[in-house]
Design brief:
Layout (H helix, E strand, L loop, with lengths): L6 H28 L12 H18 L5 E3 L5 H10 L5 H5 L29 H19 L9 E6 L6 H13 L4 E7 L12 H11 L3 E5 L3 H8 L3 H10 L2 H10 L1 H12 L4 H7 L3 H9 L6 H11 L6 E6 L21 H10 L18 H10 L28 E2 L1 H14 L3 H4 L1 E6 L8 H7 L1 E2 L7 H4 L10 E2 L4 E4 L3 H11 L2 H4 L5 E6 L8 H9 L5 E4 L18 H7 L3 E4 L4 H14 L21 E5 L5 E2 L7 H9 L1 E5 L7 E6 L3 H11 L7 E5 L2 H16 L8 H6 L7 E6 L4 H4 L8 E5 L10 H8 L3 H11 L13
Helix pairs in contact: 1-2, 1-3, 1-15, 2-3, 2-14, 5-6, 5-21, 8-9, 11-12, 11-13, 17-19, 17-25, 21-23, 24-28, 27-32
The structure holds thiamine diphosphate and magnesium ion (MG).
Length: about 800
């Protein structure tokens, strides 16, 4: 059938396919039945899903893929991936034996936690699929900016058919079409089963139309070579017609029941005492079951041919491969098989049918008829299994220790961000050339405009700004060029985060360091939160700039105001969150961030602040549109450190201090005003400027843990700052966000604390209206101080509304 592979190699591939099926089944079985499992939790959802993809993955990994290709494997096919890497000598038996156990191979392929070279993590369905698309776009971006001799890779997703229900996939497809996507394959495991049941009829034709609409090639791999041969026999066309018409449920049910059931049904429906009857009769029950199970996605020659044909071009291609969930196992086709587990008896009979001797279940070539040296020689030739590392290291890029900016007397952090980038945009250092910005249709409204004016938008082909060429006045240049450094996305926050995930892995995937900066409105982080989490889980490195934020957005009302995002910033692993009030703070944080996002490795927390500053991460800046009077000051090294570590004393508490006000972000003017209002009635009031509740909290936790482990002198930044506060002192915290953001500060040394913040969806109104309404204005701070701190009544306190 195919010219691209010798019969001998095809025979070996068929053996390897069996081996992949066996090893993945055994890995799961071992975890379920043979390993001590103290919690009694069993592996669900892997066995049947993995079997469904065994042939597809065999054809890809052992034949079609090249070292430069990158793959996102459907989450539940992780055992197949680990088995393949085991056969290729890149995974240990110990990890397979420990599948899902402590430090064993991961349930879902993990780029960061697995040790066998997972390209893209998967687990939350749909995200890995989109990651391949954005990685292709990033590959094009990198090649346009940093020409290289490296061969172009293809980004491949192995997609579950029910996974296609995830909307983020369609958001990504639309963006891919706009950006001229190339070198991307999505291979759909069309087993017509999801987690719960059998899926709708005829979805393949919906997919086909959709993909074609977005400019993809669609290749349908429906029948295997056994079926194709049978269709050529007398009566074969009737069989083809029957298969094509057969509802998903029935096909699945008959597959589960096996050869005798197929015979009965086919004879009932097609028996003609003539050629069709003969076609059926001349096959044993087993042969008939094998024929009916020989859908294209289980047929190596059909798959190799389909993949081979598509390697001749770079158009995005979707393969719809018909499969049977659980193929080759006793669970095949049953609608409840998602969490199905093979019983020990079923496993025994699979073992026997695979000619695997008891006690030799993990032996790589056990039960195969090709001699081990021939198998090994074949594996040594597998193109994908290169000895060269497939993960690149990009050299550290020198970044400025300070960023230039002219600070105006009154400005917002969002304006500051725009100006910092505008200044950077003037430069031509290697660092500046590696900055890439992206935004889901809020480029202008998040102040990226001046930067884009200087650096242009990216597109593989040049496109002029018609307004400019027609000489119509406009503040913004909207010119596209291959050298452009801004990627404009449609309004889809999932796409923003997956784009950042792809851009932020460029150093490892393309060997070129990028400094990705993505902007969006703070409330809409929630729209793409799972994708943000995904990007962090993969250790992609980027700076997220979220603005405007909070109720400070005032007139926009509840639908645009964010309340919980600082808590997301604190809780999100791999993301250092900051909320500066002043532009000089922002400049210090951004300069630090460009260094921080380049760091990696497993170093220990620093003794200075007990944070993971040596291992790096991504950065989230929660900014505001509120113009705030700026402080005239120079930032010395000590203050710079404190800003990065998360807080400094704007006003140091005196020895007799009765109240401390701790604030973060845009409410700085209210916090300062409240100190003035209290000055006559409370002694030595302290004012703590918090630039990162996240880093303060993380440092505090890490220092406590270190002390519990015997490092008695470990002290975090916030512990040192708060050590100056007398025990009787009350603390009022205030932020334009949920009060829990800072409310924990009192727990450090046991100070009585009142947390002010926002808990309810916003009203519309002016900033003073809203701050008063929610109780985060100066008067509310004073009222809270009077309530919790010792001392006489505060004379300037007005009754609260
Ligand atoms: C975002 C998300 N929602 C739900 C799940 C739980 N889940 C895992 S697999 C699955 C169904 C997968 O069906 P399909 O993609 O067709 O793969 P198959 O099981 O057929 O191999 C679901 C709902 C998940 N992993 N991620
Ligand atoms: Mg499915």
């Amino acid at each position: 059938m195919t010219q691209q592979i010798s019969d001998n190699d095809l025979k070996i591939l068929a053996e390897l396919e069996k081996k992949v099926l066996w090893l993945s089944s055994w890995t799961i079985h071992h975890a379920n039945h043979l390993r001590d499992s103290a919690d009694g939790l069993k592996v669900g959802g892997h066995q049947a899903s993995s079997a469904s993809l065994a042939a597809i993955m065999t054809a890809l990994y052992f034949h079609t893929l090249r070292p430069q290709d990158r793959v996102a494997v459907k989450p539940h096919a992780s055992p197949n991936f680990h088995a393949i890497q085991y056969l290729l000598g890149k995974q240990t038996c110990e990890k397979l034996e420990g599948f899902r156990g402590y430090k064993g191979a991961q349930s879902y392929p993990s780029r960061t936690k697995d040790t066998d070279d997972v390209d893209f993590s998967t687990g939350s369905v749909g995200l890995g699929v989109a990651q391949t698309l954005f990685s292709s776009l990033v590959q094009d971006y990198v090649r346009a900016h940093f020409p290289s001799n490296k061969p172009e890779g293809r980004m491949v997703a192995l997609v579950g058919d029910a996974e296609m229900d995830e909307g983020n996939i369609f958001e990504a497809m639309l963006e891919g079409w706009k950006q001229g996507l190339r070198n991307c394959w999505w291979v759909i495991d069309y087993n017509r089963q999801s987690l719960d049941a059998v899926i709708r009829e005829g979805l393949w034709s919906r997919y086909e139309a959709l993909f074609k609409a977005f400019g993809w090639d669609v290749v349908i791999v429906k029948h295997g070579s056994l079926q194709e041969a049978a269709f050529k026999e007398p009566g074969g066309e009737a069989l083809r017609g029957w298969i094509d018409e057969c509802p998903n449920q029935l096909y699945s049910a008959l597959t589960f029941q096996g050869g005798a059931a197929w015979r009965k049904r086919l004879m009932n429906d097609l028996g003609d005492q003539g050629p069709v009857t003969r076609l059926i009769d001349k096959r044993s029950d087993d042969e008939l079951a094998r024929l009916m199970g020989n859908l294209g996605g289980h047929d190596l020659p059909a798959l190799i041919e389909a993949f081979g044909t598509a390697t001749t071009h770079d158009r995005p291609t979707c393969f719809i491969c018909y499969t049977i969930k659980g193929s080759g196992l006793a669970l095949a086709g049953h609608k409840d098989n998602h969490a199905g587990m093979m019983t020990p008896a079923q496993m025994e009979s699979l073992r026997e049918s695979m000619h695997v001797r008891a006690g030799h279940e993990w032996d790589r070539f056990e039960g195969l008829s090709t001699p081990p040296d021939k198998l090994q020689a074949f594996l040594d030739r597998v193109p994908f299994a290169t000895k060269e590392p497939r993960r690149y290291q990009a050299p550290h890029v020198e970044v400025p220790s300070e960023l230039a900016i002219t600070i105006q007397p009154t400005m917002s952090t969002q304006m500051g961000f725009g100006q910092l980038l505008n200044e950077l945009g003037r430069g031509n250092s290697d660092f500046v050339k590696r900055i890439v910005t992206t935004s889901p249709d809020v480029t202008v409204s998040t102040n990226l405009g001046p930067w884009v004016n200087r650096r242009n938008l990216f597109a593989r082909e040049k496109m002029a700004d018609t307004f400019k060429s027609e000489r119509i006045a406009s503040t913004f240049n909207w010119e596209f060029a291959p050298t452009g450094q801004h990627i404009e996305l449609g309004i889809a926050e999932n796409n923003l985060f997956i784009a950042l995930s792809a851009l932020g892995l460029s150093h490892s995937i393309n060997g070129e360091r990028l400094f990705p900066i993505g902007t969006l409105y703070d409330p809409f982080i929630a729209r793409g939160l799972d994708a943000l989490n995904y990007a962090c889980y993969q250790e992609a490195r980027f700076i997220l700039v979220a603005t405007p934020s909070g109720i400070t957005l005032a007139g926009e009302g509840g639908a645009h105001q964010s309340i919980g995002t600082p808590l997301i910033g604190m809780a999100q692993d791999g993301l250092a969150a900051f909320e500066p009030a002043y532009v000089d703070e922002l400049a210090a944080i951004m300069a630090w961030s460009f260094d921080y996002i380049q760091k990696g490795g497993d170093a220990q927390p620093s003794e200075r602040n007990w944070l993971r500053d040596e291992t790096g991460g991504s950065v989230y800046l929660r900014l505001s549109t509120r113009p705030v009077e700026q402080i005239k000051r120079t930032i010395d090294a000590e203050l710079r450190h404190a800003i990065i570590d998360g807080a400094y004393w704007m006003r140091r508490p005196g020895p007799n201090c009765q109240v401390v006000v701790a604030y973060t972000g845009a409410v700085a003017p209210e916090a300062i005003e409240s100190i003035g209002l209290m000055a006559e009635d409370r002694r030595d009031v302290g004012l703590l400027a918090v630039t990162s509740a996240d880093r303060l909290n993380a440092g505090w936790t890490a220092a406590q843990r270190a002390r519990e482990r015997g490092l008695v002198n470990a002290r975090s930044h916030i512990e040192r700052l708060m050590a100056e506060v007398p025990p009787h002192c009350g603390i009022v915290t205030v932020c334009d966000a949920h009060p829990a953001t800072l409310g924990w500060l009192g727990a450090i040394h046991g100070h009585r604390t009142r947390g002010l913040g926002v808990e309810h969806f916003g009203q519309t109104g002016s900033i003073p209206d809203l701050y008063r309404h929610y109780g985060i204005d100066a008067n509310a701070i004073v009222a809270a101080a009077e309530a919790i701190a010792p001392g006489r009544p505060i004379r300037y306190l007005k009754a609260l509304p």
